Input
Amino acid sequence: MKSHRRWAAVLSVTAPLLLAGLLLASTGAHAAAALPKITIVGVVGSSLNNVNGYTGTIAYDPSPWFGKAFTLEMTADAAGAVGVSEELLPDIPGEFFNTWKPITVDYRLTINGALVFSGTDTSNNGNGTRIETFNDVTLPAGIPDMPAGFVAGHTYDDYAVGVSLGQLGCFDGGTNGVCDAPGDVTEHAGIVFDYVWDIAVHNALADDSLPNLLSAAPDFTKGSGSADFNFGHFSQAGGPGLDGSDIARVVLSATSVTVAPVPVPAAIWLLGSGMLGLLGFARRRAVR
Output
């Protein structure tokens, strides 16, 4: 009988505390906002295209990807990011876009079911990890190389997130794995996901602030998007047409874009630590 009374006493103390712990942890989890994970599904393009005046070659061979299905996941933590506004010169004077840094991006790219790249990267002064947005930009007539799908006179919203993937390796003489000789070439890569809305169809961004992708506003079924896999190419020798960043691209055409919340790890830790603390407190009270 004494044993039954002792456990009843313990339960009478712990049950309310367990309920309080669940409520506390739930409150903490809601207070620590979830992060948006963007999942892009589609098909890799059929070619590698030089851009920005580059006339050389790329040592890294992406041709096995061509025409294959891909899934790209990007989770951006933009807490503390600051937006810097820049004019869309020279093509659209008077219109501006915002670059948001610092951010941290978790990324995962699979092609044809195989993991190709994954990791985490944080903005710094020398890489392309960032968020870019523009709000209510009207495209004038006469823009050279008007991107496909855009119409002069229409007004657009745009959201883009880019991540640096780091070095792809040493090529053309880098036999020791270090690019330290004139004949050595090093290449690096990055991915930029870009999504555009015609505001006549869907006004996705209300203003120039950093959008909350977990709100109902940015609907990723009412615009169009794609991802660019960008290459950088550098040699120790240097020279015209040889060195550069963002000088060749493979386009990853999106057929589906979804956004889902990812719990912040701190919220999960709060649940566990809060429960352990309350259980310990309950045990001390019961023992007394």
Notes: The helical segments are 2-31, 265-287. The two ends are 19 Å apart (CA to CA). Residues 35-262 form one domain.
